[in-house]
């Protein structure tokens, strides 16, 4: 007989069919309370949802006025370069949660990263912001107080039960499946839980779409740390899973369930989860989630689609590529290379027809402030780490080499240039996993915007595509035969 149990002793729930899920004591306690049915434990109301509900009518009215009074105004021309060059610079979507300035970097609801670090409540006095606070800010546009952040942490904890089939599905995959493929598989499979899909199927009025979308958002966010940690422990720790600690916050628990309890590692995870969350709407993972969601696909499948995009090496997978590349640099030139040795190595990477991972950006034209805040974290917590020193040296060497190509528009480091070195320092050495951590964070931004997209009734996305022939004919251009 398959035993059914919920590991409840720790305050969050993993239901499983017998076997080794959690420490033996916790498993024993769970079995004592066993036989219960899995339930998703959705609270009837939450303060966050109530604040959001108050804001929505005003924003709906605002959008209606914009449509009526400004709908026919032009936001600029579209050049042929923009059309064939990945739609760079075309203002083609509404994205409320964050805005990217090419020179200054990201602002979340108007707040820069240093401002967030000062304004959002922290787990440790003067420490890194709690991502739950950022979620509140992205959803409501307001900086929450400590009690409000605590209410989100508790709400997420109550919702954190992972459906039973997820563990079985995870363990059915080959253990060497890339962690991003595992994430996409498990997130898609959790779609069985979608409140939005159920509500749509039973004919919910469109004015109410945002409510089940919000529930899915909170449930999915609540479960992602467990799912990510399960992937990590199964792939790299023989399936020896760790139960959550009910005293910990959302990001702290992610580090804990992965097996890292150092207080600075928890702080790093809080910072990491905050800064990777949102980068306005046009990047591949955000845009994909938005595009798929615009067909009224539920948040689970939309987010899984976004994660397929994040798994690309020019986007989120770059953090994995960066660490590999840095370790290759180290293997080639040693721990304390000269500037000349590093310059030669970077030139070699370019000559071999590859990109220098962690450098460049489609929009940014300065050093990414997400890089800068990670550098500051390193200066505070690991100033003497040899890999950090190498990253610092590369910061001086790479930009002039990229500039010398004459084609790279932004030679400066992006978020991915730094994250792997920090994770590595705390023992998270498996770089294949890094993009999963990025993905957990990205969920905060894209799902918060998803709630607003449904609340504002944004339509299905459908840009116009052209053929080369149409472009040539439009400008009276005859191609050489
Ligand atoms: C992020 C990225 C995809 C942006 O691409 P983009 O908007 O097309 O960038 P640009 O307009 O500056 O590209 C112009 C040229 O410079 C090249 N280039 C840009 N960044 C480069 C880099 N880091 N290393 C080598 N070449 C680079 C491009 O590949 C392109 O070459 P091509 O004309 O031969 O195709 C690009 O900078 C890149 O590949 N970076 C490395 C991967 C990375 O770190 N990704 C994470 C981004 S957060």
Can you write the helix and strand succession as a string? EEHHHEEHHHHHHHHHHHHHHHHHH
Structural class: mainly alpha
Strand percent estimate = under 5%
Q: How confident is the prediction overall: mean pLDDT?
A: 91
**How many helix segments?**
21
Distance between the termini: 73 Å
For the secondary structure, the number of strands is: 4
Percentage of residues in helical conformation: 55-70%
**Tell me, what's the shape?**
globular
Strand order, sheet with most strands:
1-2
- Bound ligands, named by name, code or SMILES: coenzyme A
**Main sheet, how many strands, which sense, barrel?**
2 strands, antiparallel
Q: Uncertain runs with pLDDT below 50, 5 residues or more?
A: 1-41
- How many whole angstroms does the radius of gyration measure? 23 Å
Give the helix/strand layout.
Elements: E1 4-6, E2 15-17, H1 24-32, H2 47-70, H3 80-84, E3 98-101, E4 105-108, H4 113-119, H5 131-140, H6 146-158, H7 164-172, H8 179-189, H9 195-201, H10 210-236, H11 250-258, H12 263-275, H13 284-293, H14 299-310, H15 318-333, H16 339-351, H17 369-381, H18 386-404, H19 416-425, H20 434-455, H21 468-474
Helix pairs in contact: 5-20, 6-10, 7-8, 7-10, 8-10, 8-14, 9-10, 10-11, 10-20, 11-12, 12-17, 12-20, 13-14, 13-20, 14-20, 15-19, 16-18, 17-19
Coenzyme A binds next to loops.
Pfam families: Citrate_synt (PF00285)
Family: Belongs to the citrate synthase family.
Active site: 315, 361, 416
Keywords:
21 helices; mainly alpha; two-stranded antiparallel sheet; two-stranded antiparallel ribbon; 481 residues; binds coenzyme A; 4 strands; disordered N terminus
């Amino acid at each position: 007989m398959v035993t059914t149990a919920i590991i409840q002793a720790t305050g969050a729930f993993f239901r499983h069919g017998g076997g080794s899920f959690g420490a033996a004591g916790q498993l024993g306690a769970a079995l004592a309370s066993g036989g219960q049915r899995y339930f998703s434990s959705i609270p009837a109301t939450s303060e966050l949802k109530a604040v959001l509900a108050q804001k929505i009518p005003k924003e709906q009215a605002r959008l209606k006025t914009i449509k009526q009074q400004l709908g026919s105004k032009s936001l600029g021309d579209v050049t042929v370069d923009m059309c064939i060059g990945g739609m760079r610079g075309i203002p083609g979507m509404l994205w409320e949660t964050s805005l990217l300035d090419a020179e200054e970097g990201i602002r979340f609801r108007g707040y820069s990263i240093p401002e967030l670090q000062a304004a959002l409540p922290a787990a440790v006095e003067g420490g890194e912001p709690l991502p739950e606070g950022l979620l509140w800010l992205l959803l409501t546009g307001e900086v929450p107080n400590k009690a409000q952040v605590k209410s989100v942490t508790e709400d997420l904890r109550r919702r954190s039960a992972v459906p039973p089939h997820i563990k079985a599905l995870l363990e059915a995959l080959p253990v060497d499946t890339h962690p991003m493929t595992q994430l996409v598989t498990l997130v898609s499979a959790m779609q069985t839980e979608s409140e939005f899909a159920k509500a749509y199927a039973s004919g919910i009025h469109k004015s109410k779409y945002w409510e089940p979308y919000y529930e899915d958002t909170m449930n999915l966010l609540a479960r992602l740390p467990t799912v990510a940690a399960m992937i990590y422990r199964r792939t790299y720790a023989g399936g020896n899973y760790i139960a959550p600690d009910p005293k910990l916050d959302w990001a702290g628990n992610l580090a804990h369930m992965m097996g890292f309890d150092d207080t600075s590692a928890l702080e790093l995870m809080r910072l990491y989860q905050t800064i990777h969350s949102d980068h306005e709407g046009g990047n591949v993972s955000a845009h994909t989630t938005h595009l798929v969601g615009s067909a009224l696909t539920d948040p689970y499948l939309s987010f899984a689609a976004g994660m397929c995009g994040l798994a690309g090496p020019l986007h989120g997978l770059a953090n994995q590529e960066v660490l590999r590349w840095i370790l290759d640099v180290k293997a080639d030139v040693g721990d304390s290379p000269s500037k000349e040795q590093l310059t030669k190595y970077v030139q070699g990477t370019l000559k071999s027809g590859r990109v220098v991972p962690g450098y460049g950006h489609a929009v940014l034209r300065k050093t990414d402030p997400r890089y800068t805040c990670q550098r500051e974290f390193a200066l505070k917590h690991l100033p003497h780490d040899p890999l950090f020193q190498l990253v610092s040296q590369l910061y001086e060497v790479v930009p002039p080499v990229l500039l010398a190509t004459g084609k790279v528009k932004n030679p400066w480091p992006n978020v991915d240039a730094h994250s792997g070195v920090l994770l590595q320092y705390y023992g998270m050495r498996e770089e294949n996993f890094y993009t999963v951590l990025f993905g957990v964070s990205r969920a905060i931004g894209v799902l918060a915007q998803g709630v607003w997209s449904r609340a504002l009734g944004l339509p299905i996305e459908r840009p116009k595509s052209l053929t080369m022939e149409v472009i040539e004919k439009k400008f009276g251009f005859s191609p050489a035969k």
